[in-house]
Structures are given as structure tokens and as C-alpha cells.
From TrEMBL:
Coiled coil: none annotated. It is an enzyme of class 2 (transferase). Keywords: Nucleotidyltransferase, Transferase. Residues 308-362 form the Cupin type-2 domain. InterPro entries: Cupin_2 (IPR013096), Mannose-1P_guanyltransferase (IPR050486), NTP_transferase_dom (IPR005835), Nucleotide-diphossugar_trans (IPR029044), RmlC-like_jellyroll (IPR014710), RmlC_Cupin_sf (IPR011051). It comes from Methanobrevibacter cuticularis. The keyword Transferase applies. Its EC number is 2.7.7.71. The keyword Electron transport does not apply. This is D-glycero-alpha-D-manno-heptose 1-phosphate guanylyltransferase. Signal peptide: none annotated. The gene is hddC_2. One of its GO terms (molecular function) is nucleotidyltransferase activity. Residues 6-127, 130-277 form the Nucleotidyl transferase domain.
Length: 383
């Protein structure tokens, strides 16, 4: 895998989240106590093996610097500041001018939250004379491109997206793709409940179902710097991307069934905070407490494809795992036990083990009520 540079678009005003965003930029909005949208995104980059991240900033950029400085858990942070907002295209351009031409990149919107597999997206993974009015994104992206070397590949993320994307998979796919640029797409969810009719009768209700349409998920992988042509400002999704699609230069990376949310309104922020009410992000996915009583404990674990938990054991906890979806195996000291959907596996106290996902896996862990009873024998991640 070539060196991949991360970029996060952090320059928006977040007007629809006011008054929260009057004193902080939207990526610094907390989704749980002392854990912001940007914390989540940087955590994802770290666990995908990305060592350098460029934050494409503007409004209240000093607040971001105050919180993160020049490093986040071993990830080097670089700042590209757009003094006058000219859109995301220019921001990405400036970021790209700061890295080598041979590096690849992933671009993310800084306000999107999703459970997508960026590692897988990378694995699977520009020109025009038309002028556009300044919109929201183009200039910030242009600034980002100017900050990087010509050999770098990139992941660019929208700064308001919360997503459980597997970045490593996205990178691996992107490197093998026949297309120089790949976009993460996610299935669209209806904002309303749906009713179905049968003749004159109302037959059924479906509460905000997933639709048979896919939308831009706010994460982009590119094998090299973008050619912006004559575009100087504006929204890159409305200027450069349509042209690149017509020229057959854009592929896509897709993961279904993941948590994804773009935080644009107070309602969307509340939805994300509800998701994180009893959830803790892990290097391999997340852990969520569903039920906790004096008699038993139920957790939901999401483990991304090609990730695994630490090799660990529980001193008192006796647990039974119910595989809701996915496939993989549990590695013990003396054996390997494979699992798939609907399987049940019991693990008694003091048994060392690691859960390995060969597909995105969701499991429910029902156990005796010892919430923090985990002793790591071999941790595969720096924390």
C-alpha cells in the first residue's frame, strides 16, 4: 500500500446548527462527552494506518488548533487555512499542493458520521472550461491539494459526517480500481415513514425505510492530485465531479448496513448523540451497551472486516455470543472456531480469545454483569 494522506473539510460555518456553532466550528460539536465529530474522524484515520492528516479549515480554525495541536494519538496534523471562503474545490486544491504528486488520498467531509470500511474502500478504489458561481466546497479542496506532494494518494472527508467506514478497505479497493477517483456511496433513507396501499385499503407502515437509491457519502479516495481545469471556486460536487463522471474517471466504494449520518441540523445531531449514548468506538469498530442490570449484561459489538479484537480474557464474566450478521472466527490458544450468521458461541471465564471478522460482523454478547472485566493479553492497536 502506498502512502495515503488524509484530508478533512473543516471550513464550513454550520449555520443550521446555530447557536451551537456560533463559538465553535461544526467538526468540534460533541457527539458524546468530550468526543467530537473530528475526534471520531481522526480516530478512524489512525486505525486505518494513516499517519498524516490535513485539516482544511477556515471559520474558527484556532479552536481546532487549540484542541488538537499538531498531533492526535500519533497522527501528524497539518492545517490549511482558507482566509476567504471560496468553496470546497479550492480547499482541496490547496491541500493537494502541500503533498507529493505520487501519494494517494482520501477526502472526507468533516461532519459526516458513518460505519464505512475505509480500508476496504481504498483497496477497491478533470478538466473543464465552464465557470461556476462560488458555492461551498471547491476552493477549500484546491487549497488542500496545493499543500501536498505530487506523489501522494488521498482520502478526503466531509467534516460533518459520522460514519463507521472501513478506511483500510476503501484504500485497498481504490488502489486496485480502474478509476483514478472513487466516492463512498451509502443507501438513502427516507426522512419520512412510508405507507403502502392495496386498492382502497392502507396495507402497512414502514418507518423511514432504506430506499433503492444511493447518495454521496462524503468520503473520497484519489490515486493522485485532481486536475481542476479552469474551476477556481464553487461546490466540487456540482462542478468537477459531474465532468469527471462523464469522462469515466469516477468509481465508487459501497458498504451497506452501516451507521452513517451527516450532521447538518439539530435533529441529525440528536440522532447521532442517541447512537452514541451507550457506545464506545474501538480501533476495530464499536461496543455498545444495550442492557445492564444486576443480573446480566448485553452488549452489541460491530467488528469491521479484516479487523479483530485484542487477545483477551475475562476473570469473572461468562458470556454467550449471538452472531447477528457477518462471518469470522474466534481464535483461542489451542483452537479456532468459525462463525456465521445465527451461530451461538459460549466463552467461559479465564479463556483467552480474539474475535476476528472476515466480513463486517455484528454480534450480541450476553453475559454476567461485569462491565469492565477485560484483561488484554496482546493488544494489536496503539491506544
Amino acid at each position: 500500500m502506498e502512502k495515503t494522506i488524509g484530508m478533512i473539510l473543516c471550513g464550513g460555518f454550520g449555520k443550521r446548527l446555530r447557536p451551537i456553532t456560533e463559538k465553535i466550528p461544526k467538526p468540534l460539536v460533541e457527539i458524546k462527552d468530550d468526543y467530537t465529530i473530528l475526534d471520531k474522524q481522526l480516530f478512524d484515520f489512525k486505525n486505518a494506518g494513516i499517519e498524516d492528516v490535513y485539516l482544511l479549515t477556515g471559520f474558527l480554525n484556532e479552536k481546532i488548533k487549540e484542541r488538537f495541536g499538531n498531533e492526535y494519538k500519533g497522527v501528524n496534523i497539518h492545517y490549511i487555512i482558507e482566509e476567504e471562503p471560496l468553496g470546497t474545490l479550492n480547499a482541496i486544491r490547496l491541500g493537494m499542493e502541500a503533498i507529493d504528486d505520487h501519494d494517494q488520498f482520501i477526502i472526507r467531509n468533516g461532519d459526516v458520521i458513518a460505519d464505512s470500511n475505509l480500508k476496504k474502500m481504498i483497496k477497491e478504489g478533470e478538466k473543464s472550461n465552464i465557470e461556476e458561481e462560488p458555492l461551498e466546497t471547491l476552493n477549500l479542496i484546491r487549497l488542500g491539494m496545493e499543500a501536498i506532494d505530487d506523489h501522494d494518494q488521498f482520502i478526503i472527508r466531509n467534516g460533518d459526517v459520522v460514519a463507521d467506514l472501513n478506511l483500510k478497505k476503501m484504500i485497498e479497493q481504490g488502489e486496485k480500481s480502474n478509476y483514478p477517483f472513487n466516492i463512498f456511496i451509502t443507501q438513502m433513507q427516507s426522512p419520512y415513514g412510508i405507507v403502502e396501499t392495496n386498492g382502497e385499503k392502507l396495507a402497512s407502515f414502514k418507518e423511514k425505510p432504506l430506499l433503492d437509491y444511493y447518495i454521496n457519502g462524503g468520503v473520497y479516495f484519489s490515486k493522485s492530485k485532481l486536475d481542476f481545469g479552469d474551476f477556481k471556486t464553487g461546490d466540487i460536487e456540482k462542478t468537477l465531479f459531474p465532468l469527471m463522471a462523464k469522462e469515466n474517471k469516477i468509481g465508487y466504494y459501497r458498504e451497506d448496513g452501516l451507521f452513517w449520518m451527516a450532521v447538518d441540523t439539530s435533529k441529525e445531531l440528536e440522532n447521532v448523540r442517541q447512537e452514541y449514548k451507550n457506545r464506545t468506538d474501538k480501533p476495530w469498530g464499536y461496543e455498545k451497551v444495550l442492557i445492564y442490570t444486576e443480573k446480566y449484561l448485553t452488549k452489541e459489538l460491530f467488528i469491521k472486516e479484516d479487523y479483530q479484537t485484542s487477545f483477551h480474557y475475562h476473570e469473572k464474566k461468562d458470556e454467550t455470543m449471538y452472531i447477528i450478521s457477518g462471518a469470522g472466527y474466534i481464535e483461542f490458544n489451542d483452537k479456532t472456531e468459525y462463525f456465521s450468521k445465527n451461530d451461538t458461541i459460549r466463552i467461559e471465564p479465564n479463556i483467552e480469545h480474539s474475535i476476528v471478522a472476515t466480513e463486517n460482523t455484528v454480534l450480541h454478547e450476553v453475559s454476567t454483569p461485569y462491565l469492565d472485566d477485560t484483561i488484554r493479553v496482546n493488544d494489536f492497536y496503539t491506544r
